[in-house]
Amino acid sequence: MSRCLKGVLSSLFIALFLAFVQPATAESVAPPSRIALVERVIATAEAAVADPRWVSGSQWEAFKNRIRDPDLQALETDEFVSAFNSAAGALPFSHFRLHWQPESGGPEAAETSIVLTWPGEDIALVRMRAFEGDPAIVTQTMREVVAAQPRALIIDLRGTPGGSFPTAVALSQGIRSEPIDAGAFLTRAWYARYGTLPNEEQYSKIKPLEVAELSGFVEQLRRDGAARLVLPGHKKPVYEGPVIILVDGGTASTCEPFVHLTQQLGAVVIGETTAGAMLSGEYFPMDESFRIFLPVADYVTPDLQRLDGRGVTPDIEVPPRQALERALTEIESSS
């Protein structure tokens, strides 16, 4: 065999070898199931979110283009979910996330949602990890605070992601006995009728929720398109001293109306502006593995402010890690 022919065959062998071992440069091909999932998510969001204006315009179009990208759709599942939620985080509304349910070894034990400690002489510190679980546990903890009547109460909501409102009601009723108008929730039916947030007259006509229970809240939203959450008054003893609330950028959702309303009632808020993620969400199953969490109800405060995208500004702004120390200093200086 000639030297020239040997060289040609050698070059051909090397080319074939590299073709097998080098990654393909062609565009990624998304599996059909992933393509279908993305289209179901888009269709569900456009039909279900509270305000149809949230799923129109340039930002929504950019989001759809991003999640329709074949390279994104072809990612491994955990990377796909992360990329999807990163894109959703750039939208001008919260409570929109894709969830994947991988196989697991069983549920983990949940942490206690509320913890009472005493960081200083006659100073109570209530740490709320989440507004979830049995409201009776929160009620019992607040009874301990009320019975002690410390010279100050600190409520720590730093990093608290929110939860359901019955637990927030239990916490609120430990510091106030008068009825509290906690704001209104507005669904797509509201926006289909009015097209915008309520004015004072419209707000006053939104029917208050008769019983502070989640099932009744959902039923009224579906029936009337709006519901106003008015915490009932009661005759039980409450904590009567000064209240300080610690917040940060992770203080979100159900926490934010609580912070806003108690601040208006005289509580001092210390830390940084809250997350600005206050809507009411609901899960929608997409297939056997995925479900989408969508904001099905908007929220407006009694003074007609939206907290979503805005948050609650603290009275005293400090880095969150310094908030407790600053609270204790404030208590000592006012004694």
Describe, in plain words, how this protein is organized in 3D:
The chain is of the alpha/beta class and 335 residues long. The chain has a domain at 114-280 and 296-334: 2-enoyl-CoA Hydratase, Chain A, domain 1. Helices cover 39% and strands 19% of the residues. The protein is built from twelve helices and eleven strands. It has helices spanning 3-21, 32-48, 58-67, 70-73, 77-88, 135-148, 165-172, 188-194, 200-204, 214-224, 255-264, 323-334; strands at 97-100, 114-120, 123-128, 152-156, 180-186, 226-231, 243-247, 268-271, 280-285, 290-300, 316-317. The strands form two sheets. The protein has a six-stranded mixed sheet with strand order 2-3-4-7-8-11, sandwiched between helices. Strand 9 (280-285) and strand 10 (290-300) form a beta hairpin. Helix 6 packs parallel to helix 7 (165-172). The longest helix is centred in the first third of the chain and has 19 residues, at 3-21. It is globular, with a radius of gyration of 26 Å. The termini are far apart.
Structural class, by secondary structure, is alpha/beta
**Strand order within the widest sheet?**
2-3-4-7-8-11
Poorly predicted runs of 5 or more residues: 1-26, 105-109
What is the CATH homology-level superfamily of the domain at 114-280 and 296-334? 2-enoyl-CoA Hydratase, Chain A, domain 1
Determine the strand fraction and express it as a percent band: 15-25%
Count the helices. How many? 12
CATH class of the domain at 114-280 and 296-334: Alpha Beta
Cα shape = globular
Rounded radius of gyration (Å) = 26 Å
What is the makeup of the main sheet?
A: 6 strands, mixed
Provide the CATH topology of the domain at 114-280 and 296-334: 2-enoyl-CoA Hydratase, Chain A, domain 1
Our measurement of the CA-to-CA distance between the termini, rounded to an integer number of angstroms, reads 101 Å
Residue-averaged pLDDT, rounded?
Answer: 89
Number-wise, the strands total 11
